[in-house]
Design goal:
10% strand; binds thiamine diphosphate; Rossmann fold; two-stranded antiparallel sheet; 8 strands; binds magnesium ion; disordered N terminus
Length: 353
């Protein structure tokens, strides 16, 4: 009898401190320095966003990425032209590495008509769909299905699929939509790179109230996909694990589930003082600051000199200040002249000229 379904190789689950993939010698120092520059810029941009929020210049909310920069940048740096990227709220670093400008990020926050959402956001729901950069959907768990859909559309059109990369929090993994998307991606063997940022809390709900398994990595087996564990506070480890996952997705090994352990080093949003976070967690390994840890690591492994990193900090701060000066001179949106459409401005839609 003819087989309707091709036999698939068993999914591999990897990760942990003894993982052979984690070899500093396998890393490209220039890529790591570049990654560090993005995480630094993301951190300073977050600080600036918080300051603008406190000054009343952000009409929506300010949701920061503190503690998640290393994870976020590592995913985005694997992407190539033609891939799909659907970042979530704590992906400031990934967005920058994917090519978003500081001006676009800030203009979205302050609701400037010169930003990608032309004054309709005041938050983080920005994107440029025609560049494969999908605007975030607030409803937790909804975006992975959209990435699946974009990949399947390419398959049906006979176009190269590239890979689709997205991220979700520990809380978001409890939604039915997330399970449906993972299951669909597994059955269709889509090149989906799904990163779970297990940052210990969803708002104030601790992960122990979210799932009963030890690690969300256990789910990889159930979905029948490759699973990778990574220390989300370790830039070098994140870069290596993401490189492996993205390569496997490109090579046709199907969806890749990466589960990172880390801690949200800020409130859910700037309106939240996060006083419910267990102080012991802040003192533990997950509570370490990935930006500072990356700087220490680069110096300790001879991949950057201290002077080089301080110069980088000065340059990045100057770049940011210049961008802030620029966007604060933007006019306010004028509803009488804006050509707003339901999804995004016409010029940013796929197939727009
Ligand atoms: C389906 C759905 N339920 C509830 C919410 C409200 N909400 C927004 S963010 C959030 C917590 C998200 O936690 P997590 O997924 O762990 O991500 P984190 O904020 O920790 O990065 C909740 C409950 C939502 N946006 N969508
Ligand atoms: Mg969380």
């Amino acid at each position: 009898m003819q087989r309707l379904v091709e036999a698939v190789p068993p999914a591999a689950v990897t990760g942990g401190p003894n993982d052979p993939v984690l070899r500093p010698s396998a890393l490209d120092p220039s890529q790591l320095r570049l990654a560090y520059r993005w995480v630094l810029l993301a951190r300073l941009l977050d600080d600036k966003t918080a300051a603008l929020y406190r000054s009343g210049l952000v009409p929506g909310g300010a949701f920061l990425s503190k503690g998640q920069e290393a994870l976020s940048v590592s995913l985005a740096m694997q992407l190539q032209p033609g891939d799909i990227y659907a970042p979530l709220i704590r992906d400031t670093a990934g967005r920058l590495a994917f090519g978003e400008t500081i001006q676009d990020a800030l203009r979205s926050c302050i609701g400037s008509p010169l930003g990608p959402m032309r004054g309709r956001d005041g938050n983080v729901h920005r994107g440029r769909p025609k560049d494969g950069y999908l605007p975030m959907i607030s409803h937790l768990g909804a975006i992975p299905s959209v990435v699946n859909g974009a990949l399947i559309a390419r398959r049906l059109q006979g176009k190269p699929m590239g890979i689709g990369a997205t991220c979700i929090g520990d809380g978001g993994t409890s939604t039915g939509a997330f399970h449906e998307a993972m299951n669909q991606a597994a059955v269709e063997r889509l090149p989906l790179v799904m990163v779970v940022a297990d940052n210990q809390y969803a708002y104030s709900t601790h992960r122990s109230r979210q799932f009963a398994c030890d690690s969300l990595l256990d789910r990889a087996v159930g979905y029948g996909v490759d699973g990778h564990a990574v220390d989300g506070t370790d830039l070098a480890a994140c870069m290596q694990v993401m490189d492996r996952a993205a390569r496997r997705a490109r090579e046709g090994c199907g969806p890749q589930l990466i589960v990172a352990n880390l801690l949200r080093l800020c409130g859910h949003g700037e309106h939240d003082d996060a006083s419910y976070v267990d102080p012991a967690l802040k003192e533990s390994h997950v509570g370490r600051d990935c930006v500072k840890a990356a700087a220490d690591w680069l110096i300790a492994h001879g991949m950057a000199a201290p002077g080089e990193l301080s110069k980088m900090q000065t340059d990045v701060s100057a770049e940011l200040e210049k961008a802030v000066d620029e966007i604060l001179r933007d006019p306010a949106p004028d509803p009488n002249v804006e050509k707003w459409t339901a999804l995004a401005t016409a010029a940013l839609r796929e197939n727009a000229s």
